[in-house]
Every structure is written in C-alpha cells, then in structure tokens.
Amino acid sequence: MFTQTDRRERRTEFTARVKREATGSWPDVLQQLGIPAKVLTKRNKPCPACGGVDRFSFIDKGYGAFVCRGMDSQGGDGFALVRHYLGCDFMTAVKAVGEALGLLPMSGVCHAPLPPPQRLIGATAPPGQADRGGLLAMWDKARPLSLPRPAALYLTGRGLDVPVSLALRDTPLLPYWHERVMLGRWPAMLARVTADDGGFAGLHRTYLTHAGHKAAPRDADGRSLPCKKLATVREGVMRGAAVRLFAPQAGRLALAEGIETALAVHQQSGLPVWACVSAFGLEHAALPDDVQDVFIFADHDRSGTGQRAGERLERRLLREGRRVRLLVPSRPDSDWLDVFNGQG
Prior knowledge:
Blueprint: H1 4-22, H2 26-32, E1 45-47, E2 51-60, E3 65-68, E4 75-76, H3 78-86, H4 90-100, H5 132-141, E5 143-144, H6 150-157, E6 168-178, E7 181-194, E8 200-207, E9 228-232, E10 252-256, H7 259-269, E11 273-275, H8 279-283, E12 293-297, H9 305-319, E13 323-327, H10 336-340
Organism: Laribacter hongkongensis
Keywords: DNA replication, DNA-directed RNA polymerase, Nucleotidyltransferase, Primosome, Transcription, Transferase
Domain DNA primase/helicase Gp4 N-terminal Bacteriophage T7-like: 42-79
C-alpha cells in the first residue's frame, strides 16, 4: 500500500522522466496530442487552443516554447501549451505527454485516455524517406527495449521475455506513411536488417499502441493497413539479409521467418537466432562460413510457402556441407511462437 509520501515521490520521479524524454521531441509530442503540424512554426497564426488571428507562435528551442498573447502568461513551455490546449492541470498534462512518449505512469498515478493519433491526410512524404541516411538516423534516435515502453509491452504480451539484442530498439513516435501521405504517428519497435555482406540493409517497423498492442492504421477510405512495414536502402538488398538478433555461438545458428517467432525460438531453445523477415528471406539466408550446425524453424503455412522455403534452404545448406535440422509445426497456419504459447 502506497503512502501519500510514496505517491508524491513517484509523481516527482515520473514528472522528471517525462521532462527528460520530451526535451527535443516537442513537435512530435504535440502532434500526437492533436495539434496540427502546420501550427507548430514561428510564423504568427491563430492559437490551436483559443483561436484569434495571429496571437500564437511556436518557438520550441527544445523545450516546446511558445507565445500566445491570449494567455495571461503570454506563453510558456511545452507543458504549458498542453495545459492550454487540453484545458487541464499540470499533472494531467504530464501524464498526457508521458502517454504520447510511450511511457506509462508509475503505480499510484492515474491517467486519462488520449485521443487517437491524428490523421494528417494531405501531408506529403519527404523525398528520400527510405534512403540509407534517413533510415540510419531513425535507428540512431531509437532506444534499447525497456519496460514499460510499448515495444517491450508488446513482446511480453506475446508471451516473450524482453530480449537483450542489439538488433531491436523502440521509438516513442514514428510517422506512418501510405502512398506519400502521413496518416499519423505511433510508437514502434524497430529491427535493424543486416545485408549478407554485413552492411546496413534497412529497418523493419512494427507500429504499436501506447499500451503495447498492434496499431490499426487505416487509409482515407477506412481500409485497414498493415502494422508491420519494411524499408530497405535499395532494391534487391533483402536477398540474404536478416535481423541478426543473436550472434552464432560455437558454429550453431537457428533461423526463422518472423522476429517474434525467432525470439520464441531463442527463449525456448537457448539457440542464437536470426529472423529472416519473410519466406523469401528464409530461403535465401546467407550464413557465415563458420556456422556448421543450422536449425531451420519454418512456419507451417496452409499454402505450403513456409515449408517450401525451409526445404529449399535445407537442401542448399546440405550441399554447402553444413549439418541442418528442419523443424515445422504440426498444425497448419501456425509458427513456433504459436507452438510455444500452446496454440500450435
């Protein structure tokens, strides 16, 4: 049972954490809370909270600074803007910003639900969005997986431990682009994809809700869109590429299609594992010469796609002189994560 002092200390700690995480990220945070991107510029314009004609200007400076001549204080920092926009007190603003950043309030701190991510139909995607520099910058800004952030919550919700892997990170807010239109921003789990030559191939992204569930983006007509997307640095780079979750050990390596399936294999078997992203990636996996014992954990697709990919890889690796074991779940339409969760 928490005392009043405990609750006060937890609120103080949570507030300090939110302030640290928000520094430098205020435009993304404010857009997640519903303030349109076009408002967040230095040019004078109507205030998103109280209107007017030219009373508002967003200066940012890393801490969300703004001016609004309709306020007694004439402006303030990002938390003051959230209070002004939502019409709430300071702690409610802190909780809202914490949610937008993918943080969960600590025990004893209640929070109000936030509006869904804003649709920004008509915003044009920047050119070169999937170039190497842009993808590497996205990766560099992301953070290691850690509870209670959404990516770690997502994995634990799938029955997995939070892995210690250099190939996985999370990001609090990532734009979702569809046909050169940004539909919103969601938290996301990022996976670094490595090419067969060891170079950077791209990023696999899993878009999530703040509570750690799969996001449900929709296009302008309301059609569901995938919550998982892959961006690569060039065409053809995925042949032989993989998410190298854990380095081979003593010449042994396991392979699977999906990231979650690969993590389940590692968790249950202790084997180092790479996720090949797709059946095509599994079939064309490129392995180091010193890997001699290979364990292929193929999906059991009703179409046979996963099994055929595993069989073709097995034949190729055997021709290369490696020892190979191919494992396929007995139940159709299942993978090894389903098996380990008692569903396959």
